[in-house]
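Exercise 7. Given the encoded structure of a 516-residue chain, write a plausible sequence.
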């Protein structure tokens, strides 16, 4: 049986820029087994044995009509083809309860007045049918041709599904699973992605379809894409249309942004940092959050609405290897400006700082200090991943440890800048002798820094100009060196000729005889 059938019934994903309403699919269905094959075989036996008596074949011949064993139809996107059950259901106007039912009643009435429906066995369900909507809820717990993933519905989804079914108990819901067999599904997300299951045959063997019920039948299914192809002239026209559309969209975007690039004034450095507090690990207790504050040194400033501090959400730790890690993924943005007092190209004296404090919450929402740390803003632009280690003040003795465990009290710093160098300190050396601390965990930051200054543009232009002059100078110097060498050679040759002519002839003759 596998020699004539295609067993690959998985999904296929297509991408199209055309409207999905232009999709046309040809479905060919042919019966393989049951009375058609039996009647054909009996007829062949009768023809070979004409003297064996008469055999009545009328019942079998009536079931083996060509239209009953084979059907081919072309279906468009969201095209409704009624089944025999729907034809009988929507004939009665009293059974129609919704506007869609009444519309189907008009269409069925028009079909009955005409030649009837063109399809025999093949029919469709569109996105507006209640069968489709209900079947999407059922596919979460069962594996059918509409899905390939096995997922268990949540408690809320089950309750919503049962409520929806109770509300539709008094309404007519299409679909009789015992009398129907799903052949082909088409789904789209409205962005040009089309998912079909099974895939188009494309010259391959037909698919094998087995119906359910007592009379199991085997059918051949062939699905082909018969959508009208575009002509070469239409493709070129569409290509130029998309190109013009992209150009107009680009011009519109440029009109919104403007042609002038925003630059800070001369002598000012603009520093922009998009940061992220990624995670914290190695701390003693759970339910951790981070409180941070920015400090700007001298000659630095920020916008009035720029926040200088922030607090992350509380995160529970998760075991990762040997450490308990609390993930935050907390983003923050900071923008500052530096104004140089001197116009020299010296390096910046001080960079902004970020002081942070790690705290934890107990079951009674009481805070415990887990660690202090600081972060120096990177002096180079680009992406930086930094891990900052922390420490916390420590009081010796058992009473302090019990107080920290039971009531959440712990020593704290009055000035967060004491982690590095206090801002009010004016001396040369800072002594922390006698101050007890304990090492705690670490905090990881992701920083994306941008530096912008008009001096960068001027310096790059100057470097390019110097490079251009150097290239030309190098070319000219090479040419000058060659010319000077030739001139020196000519001068040396003339000197040799002058010396030769100034020598006496007897000396030249004797020198020539010695050479012989």
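Solution.
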């Amino acid at each position: 049986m596998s020699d004539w059938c295609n067993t690959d019934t998985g999904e296929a994903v297509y991408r199209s820029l055309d409207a999905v309403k232009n999709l046309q699919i040809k479905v060919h269905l042919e019966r393989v087994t049951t009375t058609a094959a039996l009647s054909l075989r009996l007829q062949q036996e009768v023809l070979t044995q004409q003297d064996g008596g008469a055999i009545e074949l009328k019942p079998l011949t009536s079931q083996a009509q060509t239209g009953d064993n084979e059907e081919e139809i072309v279906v468009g996107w969201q095209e409704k083809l009624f089944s025999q059950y729907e034809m009988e259901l929507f004939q009665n106007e009293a059974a129609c309860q919704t506007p869609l039912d009444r519309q189907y009643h008009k269409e069925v009435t028009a079909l009955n007045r005409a030649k009837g429906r063109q399809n025999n066995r093949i029919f469709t369900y569109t996105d507006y049918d209640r069968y489709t909507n209900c079947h999407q809820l059922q596919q979460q717990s069962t594996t059918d041709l509409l899905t390939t993933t096995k997922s268990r519905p949540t408690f809320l989804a089950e309750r919503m599904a049962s409520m929806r079914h109770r509300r539709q108990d008094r309404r007519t819901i299409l679909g009789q699973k015992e009398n129907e067999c799903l052949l082909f599904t088409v789904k789209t997300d409205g962005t040009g992605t089309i998912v079909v299951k099974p895939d188009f045959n494309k010259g391959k063997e037909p698919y094998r379809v087995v119906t359910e019920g007592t009379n199991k039948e085997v059918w051949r299914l062939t699905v082909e894409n018969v959508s009208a192809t575009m002509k070469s002239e239409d493709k070129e026209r569409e290509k130029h249309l998309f190109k013009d559309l992209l150009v107009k969209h680009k011009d519109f975007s440029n009109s919104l942004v403007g042609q002038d690039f925003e630059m800070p004034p001369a002598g000012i450095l603009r520093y922009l940092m998009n940061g992220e507090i990624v995670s914290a690990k190695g701390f003693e207790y759970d339910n951790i959050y981070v409180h941070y504050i920015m400090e700007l040194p001298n000659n630095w400033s920020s916008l009035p609405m720029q926040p200088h501090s922030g607090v992350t959400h509380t995160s529970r730790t998760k075991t990762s290897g040997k450490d308990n890690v609390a993930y935050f993924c907390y983003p923050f943005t900071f923008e500052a400006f530096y104004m140089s007092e001197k116009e020299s190209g010296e390096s910046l004296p001080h960079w902004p700082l970020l002081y942070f404090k790690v705290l934890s919450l107990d079951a009674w929402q009481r805070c415990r200090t887990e660690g202090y740390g600081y972060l120096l803003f990177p002096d180079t632009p680009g992406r930086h991943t930094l891990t900052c280690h922390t420490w916390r003040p420590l009081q010796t003795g058992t009473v302090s440890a019990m107080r920290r465990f039971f009531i959440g009290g712990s020593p704290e710093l009055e000035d967060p800048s004491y982690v590095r160098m206090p801002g009010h300190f004016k001396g040369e050396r800072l002594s922390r002798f006698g101050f007890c601390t304990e090492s705690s965990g670490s905090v990881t930051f992701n920083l994306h820094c941008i530096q912008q200054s008009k001096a960068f543009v001027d310096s790059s232009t100057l470097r390019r100009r110097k490079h251009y002059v150097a290239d030309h100078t190098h070319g000219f110097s090479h040419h000058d060196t060659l010319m000077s060498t030739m001139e020196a050679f000519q001068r040396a040759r003339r000197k040799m000729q002058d010396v030769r002519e100034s020598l006496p002839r007897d000396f030249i003759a004797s020198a020539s005889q010695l050479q012989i």
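Remark. The longest strand covers residues 323-339. Students should compare their own answers with the one above.
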